[in-house]
Design brief:
Among the domains are: about 80 residues, Endolytic murein transglycosylase (Dna Ligase, domain 1), CATH 3.30.1490; about 80 residues, no CATH class; about 80 residues, no CATH class. A hairpin with a 4-residue loop joins β6 and β7. The strands form three sheets. A three-stranded antiparallel sheet has the order 1-2-3. The protein has a two-stranded antiparallel sheet with strand order 4-5. It contains 14 helices and seven strands. It is elongated and about 100 Å long. By secondary structure, the chain is mainly alpha-helical.
C-alpha cells in the first residue's frame, strides 16, 4: 500500500515526453518548408532579373568558325560568341550540356550564321553540310598521292610536304620505323584547320597510324609471328595493293610462305611501285626494272612499304590464313576473283585464264 500512495497525490504531473517530440517535429517541418519556399523564391527572382537571349532565331548571313583539336565545350561556346553566332557562351553551354549529340562536335571549319539561338547553332554544327575542310585519304595511297591531296585540299605547298616526308625528324614516328615514314601516312579522314602546316598534317596522319597500330597490337603480334613491326607493315602494304578484302588473309599467307621457303615474292605491285605506275598487265621489260622494290629480281621484302595500308590489311598481315599457297592470280579483273594454289602448273593455267579474260574485256571496251 505504501508504494501506491505517492501516485495518488494531487500535485501537477511532469510533462509527457511524447508531447515534446511532436513539438520538435512541427518546428522542423516549418523550418524545412520555409527553406524550400526561400529557394524557390530566390530562383524565380534571380531568373526574372536575367536578360532574355538577344538571339532567338535561325540567324542570317554566314560566318566561318574554326574548332581546333582539343577545344573544350567552353572554348567552342566562347568562339561562337566571339564570332557573333550566339549571344553569350553560357547559353550555348547550357543547351549543349543537355544534348548528348554535342559530343559529335569535331575539329574543323564550320559555316554558320550570325545571330543564332543556342539550339539552332548546335543543330547547324551537327549538320555535316556545315562542316568543311576535310581531307580523305584512301587505303593504299602512295606518298606522292598524299602530297597531291595536301596541295588541293589543305592548300599546303608540294615543296613543304615533300620536305617533311623526306626529313620527318619532327614527326612522332615509332622507333621501329628507323626514321622512315613510308606506310605511316594512315588512310583516314582528317579535319583541316586553316593555316595548318605540312608538319602538322603529317603528324596527324602518323598519330592516326600509331593509334591503329595500338588497336591491332602490332608490335606484340609481329614478334609472335617472328617478324618486326616494320616487316609486317611492308607485308600489309603488299596485301593492300594485291588483294580484295576477302582475299587479304590468303595473300598475306602467300607472302609469308614465299619468304619462309626462300622464294622471291614476285609481286606485280612492287614492279608498279618501282616504275611509278599502276597497271594490271606487267610486261617482260617492266619485270627487268632495276630497283630494290622489284621483287622479281631481289630477294626478300622490299625496303619499305609501297603504300599506306589500312587497318584491314594490317590485321591480315598479323593474322594470315592457314594454307600452303605459293601462287595467286586475279583471274577476273572485272570481279576481282582470285585463285590460289601451291602448284606451279596450276598457277600457269591461272595466268592463261587471266590473259584470256583481260583481252576479252579490252576488246569489249574498244567496241563500245
Amino acid at each position: 500500500m505504501s508504494q501506491v500512495l505517492p501516485l495518488l497525490t494531487s500535485a501537477e504531473l511532469p510533462p509527457s515526453p511524447n508531447r515534446s517530440s511532436w513539438t520538435r517535429r512541427i518546428v522542423v517541418a516549418l523550418v524545412v518548408i520555409g527553406l524550400v519556399l526561400a529557394v524557390v523564391f530566390s530562383a524565380v527572382f534571380i531568373r526574372s532579373l536575367a536578360p532574355e537571349p538577344a538571339f532567338t532565331g535561325a540567324g542570317s548571313g554566314t560566318v566561318t568558325v574554326v574548332v581546333a583539336e582539343g577545344d573544350t565545350l567552353s572554348t567552342v561556346a566562347q568562339t561562337l560568341s566571339d564570332a557573333g553566332v550566339v549571344d553569350a557562351p553560357e547559353g550555348f553551354i547550357n543547351v549543349a550540356e543537355l544534348d548528348p549529340r554535342s559530343a559529335g562536335i569535331q575539329p574543323g571549319v564550320y559555316t554558320l550564321r550570325i545571330g543564332m539561338s543556342p539550339s539552332a547553332a548546335l543543330d547547324l554544327m551537327l549538320d555535316p553540310k556545315s562542316r568543311s575542310g576535310r581531307m580523305v585519304v584512301a587505303e593504299g595511297v602512295r606518298p606522292d598521292a598524299v602530297v597531291s591531296l595536301a596541295v588541293t585540299e589543305a592548300s599546303i605547298s608540294a615543296a613543304d610536304m615533300e620536305s617533311v616526308l623526306a626529313d620527318p625528324r619532327e614527326i612522332p614516328l615509332p622507333r621501329w620505323a628507323h626514321g622512315r615514314i613510308e606506310g605511316l601516312l594512315f588512310p583516314a579522314s582528317y579535319d583541316l584547320i586553316p593555316g595548318m602546316t605540312a608538319t602538322e598534317l603529317v603528324s596527324r596522319m602518323v598519330d592516326r597510324f600509331n593509334q591503329a597500330a595500338d588497336q591491332v597490337d602490332l608490335s606484340r603480334r609481329a614478334k609472335r609471328l617472328g617478324y618486326t613491326p616494320w616487316e609486317v607493315l611492308i607485308v600489309a602494304s603488299l596485301v593492300q595493293a594485291e588483294a580484295r578484302p576477302q582475299d587479304m588473309g590468303k595473300v598475306a599467307r602467300v607472302a609469308y610462305n614465299r619468304l619462309e621457303t626462300g622464294m622471291p615474292l614476285q609481286f606485280d605491285s612492287t614492279v608498279n611501285y618501282a616504275l611509278g605506275i599502276s597497271t594490271l598487265l606487267i610486261t617482260k621489260d617492266m619485270l627487268a626494272v632495276d630497283s630494290p622494290y622489284n621483287t622479281f629480281i631481289t630477294d626478300g621484302l622490299p625496303p619499305a612499304p609501297i603504300n599506306s595500308p589500312g587497318e584491314a590489311a594490317l590485321e591480315a598481315a598479323l593474322s594470315p590464313e592457314a594454307g600452303d599457297w605459293l601462287y595467286f592470280v586475279t583471274v577476273d579483273p572485272a570481279t576481282g576473283r582470285t585463285k590460289f594454289t601451291a602448284d606451279y602448273d596450276e598457277f600457269l593455267s591461272f595466268k592463261k585464264e587471266f590473259k584470256r579474260r583481260y583481252a576479252a574485256q579490252l576488246e569489249a571496251q574498244a567496241s563500245q
